[in-house]
Write a structure and sequence with these properties.
- One of its GO terms (molecular function) is heme binding.
- One of its GO terms (cellular component) is cytoplasm.
- Belongs to the cytochrome P450 family.
- Keywords: Iron, Metal-binding, Signal.
- The chain is mainly α and 123 residues long.
- It has 2 domains: 30 residues; 93 residues, no CATH class.
- 46% of the residues lie in helices and 10% in strands.
- The protein contains 5 helices and 2 strands; from the N terminus they run αααββαα.
- It has a two-stranded antiparallel sheet with strand order 1-2.
- A hairpin with a 2-residue loop joins β1 and β2.
């Protein structure tokens, strides 16, 4: 009897998990193609691969997915543009679609609402 209960519970959990994965995969169907994200962490393992610069990781991913791709960093989904042509087309020809920026609470706390400043020098 315990074996039957265990199998029923396992079947219920697997069906719930498959439903969640299927629902999550169809949530952003209008987004550009990109690497398949892992649950909770997204594509953090692919972007932070062996302490490479993000630009080299994105260049490598763009060979597979093209110059416009979607990358998931945790719960945040980002559209990444790689290359001059893709950035120029987005910012000049489709400026209205790319005008928004997400408000990140950590940066808002650090900058105290006065804007953003990043030091991109390699240490």
């Amino acid at each position: 009897m315990e074996l039957v209960d265990t199998l029923c519970l396992t079947a219920i959990l697997l069906s719930l998990l498959s439903t969640l994965v299927q629902r999550d995969s169809t949530r952003y169907t209008k987004m550009p193609p990109g690497p398949t994200p892992l649950p909770l962490i997204g594509n953090l393992l692919q972007v932070n691969d062996n302490n490479k610069k993000c630009s080299s990781c994105f260049s490598q991913l763009s060979e597979t997915y093209g110059p416009v791709m979607t990358v998931y960093l945790g719960g945040l989904h980002l559209v990444v543009l790689v290359g001059y042509e893709a950035v120029h087309e987005a910012l000049v020809q489709h400026a209205d679609a790319f005008a928004g920026r997400p408000e990140l609470p950590l940066f808002k706390m650090i900058s105290k609402g006065f804007g953003r400043c990043f030091n991109l020098q390699q240490v």
